[in-house]
Structure formats: structure tokens, C-alpha cells
Amino acid sequence: MKILEYVVYTNRGKVRQDNEDSYLVKEAPLPVFAVADGMGGHQAGEVASRLAVDLLDSYDFDAENLLPDIEKAIREANEEILKMGTSNLSYRGMGTTLSMGILFDDKLFIGHVGDSRIYLFREGELRQLTTDHSLVNELLENKQITSQEAFNHPQRNIITQALGITRDLSVETKEIELMSGDILLFSTDGLHDMLCSPQIEEFFITGQDIEGISKLMGQGALDKGGNDNITFIIVKLP
Predict the structure, then answer these.
(1) Domain region containing 143
(2) Cys-Cys crosslink for 188: which of 27, 37, 50, 213, Cβ 3.0 to 4.6 Å?
(3) pLDDT of the chain, 238 residues: tens digit per residue
(4) Is the pTM above the cut of 0.85?
(5) 53 with 36: CB under 8 angstroms?
(6) Number of structural domains, the chain?
(7) Cα dist from 119 to 17, 153, 201, whole Å
């Protein structure tokens, strides 16, 4: 699939001293996009997120076997992070979210762990393609809180799945049919914790080019507080 254009935005935000987010943009042999939000003290989060995207960067994905390959790659990244966390005391307990997608044959093949997200903007509507592996999302799915309460919940940063925490990892994989003109958004929670989905949707509805949308949306997240590292990739399909 030929990609018309993409843009990356990353910023440490207004509160954090370091940027522990990592991202991957790889155009060939298959287009691969990923964002990872690291956690852990002494810059260990940055190490974990970088390990995850570096492994994806070096992985030889089989176009005829993408979903199993994606899960295998994510599990290998999990093992590498666990191994480093065990062997180096300063990295103990580090982990990372990971949301990745591969474009092939007019489809998006997704692999996801944690509370980073992948969205699809199509025909004026924004749709979240991934499931947040978080305490708040469990409350939301059990109808114990509303979506507005979820967005403002004080425990919204407690995640239930991450690479580097346990070998008993639940990896979300799926494939999505794509259409000409679709826009994909890969984001860490520094974006979608500051801007709710309808607010993100509004930026895309303006019809601006993705470079302009990226700048406005990044500034919007900073204006709302910039409480975390902000990283996102916008991909527009031809």
C-alpha cells in the first residue's frame, strides 16, 4: 500500500523532566507504525519503550502471517524488557505500553498492549480501534462509570497490561479494512488524557493538512496541561 503522507509529533510536555515515549515509523518492506509509553524510574521507562520499538524495527514480518507475527514480536519484546529489568537493578519494574500497526493489502494489522491508542478517522468520524487495558476502562465496560467520568477519573493512569511486567501478557490483535482517504492516529495517553475523543475529532474535521492538524493538536494537549509526554503519529492514506 502506498502511503500518501505521515507526520510525527513528540513533546515531553509541561510536567515531566524526560520524554519516556518512543515511536517507530518504518516505510519498507512493510509500513510499520508504533508508539510506546514507558514507565519506571531513572529513565528506565525510556529504555523499555525504546527496546520495544527497536525490536519491531528489526523484526522480519511475514506479510502472509501478520497477526501471529505481530503477537510473536510483542511477546519477544516483553521477554527482552523482563530480562533487562531482572539483570539490571536500576531497570527493575520498568515497562511500556505498545500500540502498533502494519499496513498491507488495504488493511491495518494491529498489535496492542496498554493504554496507548490507535484511532481511525473516516468520513468525519473518529473511532478508537484499540481497547484501553486500564482500570478505568474496566469500570467503564462494567457500566460503573460514564465516559465523561472515565476521562476525568483520578485513577485513569492505572493500567492492567504492559510489556515488561509479566510473562502472562494479553496481546490484542486485529485487522481492519481500510479505505482511500482514511486517517490513522497512533497516540500515547499524553494526547488522549488531555483531549477527549470528540475534541481530537474536531481537529480532523477542520480538513487541514495533517502537518497543520499535528501542530494544533499537540498545542491543544499542552494548553490543557501537558501533564505527560505527548507522542502521536498521523498517517493519511491515498
Answers:
(1) 5-236
(2) 37
(3) 556 799 999 999 999 889 999 999 999 899 999 999 999 866 799 999 999 999 999 999 999 999 999 999 999 999 999 999 888 888 988 999 999 999 999 999 999 999 999 999 999 999 999 989 865 665 566 666 666 655 665 566 677 899 999 999 999 999 999 999 999 999 999 999 999 999 999 999 988 899 999 999 999 999 999 999 999 999 999 9
(4) yes
(5) yes
(6) 1
(7) 28, 21, 10
